[in-house]
Specification:
The chain has about 450 residues and is mainly α. It is about 70% helix and about 0% strand. Strands 1-2 form a two-stranded antiparallel sheet. α8 packs antiparallel against α9 (about 190-205). The longest helix is centred in the last third of the chain and has 38 residues, at about 340-375. The two termini are about 45 Å apart.
Amino acid sequence: MANDGAKIEECVEQVESISALRAPQRRKDNPLTRSLAGMLGMGVLGVMFLVCLGSLPWTLSAGVDADGQSIGVPRYDAGSPKAGRLPPSWWVYDEQDIERSTKAIEPAVLEQIALEHGSTVDQLIEAQDEATLDLVKPYWPRYWLGSDTLGRSLGVRLLAGGGISLTIGIAAALISVSIGTIYGAFAAYVGGKVDSVMMRAVDVLYGLPYILLVVLLAVASDAMVDEWVTHNKAKAKWMQNQVVETQFQETGEKLSRADARILLGEDQQLHDELVTQALALYPRREISAGTRTMLDVLTLLVAIGGVSWLTMARVIRGQVLSLKNQQFVEAAQAIGGSPTRIFVRHLLPNLIGPIVVYATLAVPQAILQESFLSFLGIGVKPPLPSWGNLAAEGLGELNTYRSHWWLLFFPCLLLGVTLLAMNFVGEGLREAFDPKRQR
């Protein structure tokens, strides 16, 4: 009986093996396709990056006139006030739009049209009948997304502003991720009192208003650049020293700096003389518009990236604390591996998932902060466009009498779509790197 039972079990195992071999193969799971929203967001982001970043060399380069000659102004800043506030070319034009479009035609071309059809320029401008409009419509300046108050193409400015906003957001997020990863990993790996002190510093920074820190850093950097250009503090200090030395030589009494400032305020003639001498000793430094713009952008990068790493530091610290007690780390320590080698070869590969997921969430946060600061006027400054300052310019064009809606709608639309797509991508990457969500 025992032999019969063994034979029966053997037969059952053979049947199960044959059934398993004949069963259809299990479909492999691609982690990147688990989230439909993530795939959709990745596609939108790909198009946005390709269009905005790919067109930056063109939008930032100098424009050309009808004869192909360079006009010496970047394309994003090129335009004529005569063509200001024109609606998108596919929108319905009212009487004011028609009149402005006709006035924006080159005067020589407008005069030629009037001469050929036996009318005057004023008649062409004021005409609203279909026959006259058919004459001038081909010469109207047309903008697919409308024009701003200075007659610049909103579409070109949106492309340039999108490239700038995306570049600043990505760079600031990389700075944030790098600082947070190094800081959190070092604190967790060293441990002890060093970890406690470092994380208490993070707690203190968490208690401060986040956006206020970014604003203060941006304003402080602007003040430093202005001081470097003007020498205002150095000139004021030199003038006060001159007053103190002069009074000491005349009266033998040494004045304080506060008294020197009071004396300069009361004696206008002395103040003017010392100002003239100070200007000769400390001439104003010249700084080009391009250099100043680059300094403003770099300041914005440091301000956003240098403050937004706190959450990343906490996340990485928690991951390293859980990993450094694993057996593979203890084995690496036992064979004499250096801390740097252990971190690079063993810990860092296991941190790639959290780092990538957090980076995708840090980019939209950085873009939103840049747009908010630019909206307030302390981020990217005109004429250099960004989605934030374009929205700020469009906000003033909304009124109860006549609203130029396209100046606010399109910057906000592109910003909202980009942020939403980035959040979808972050959700998709979280699905891909989370082993619990595997099918």
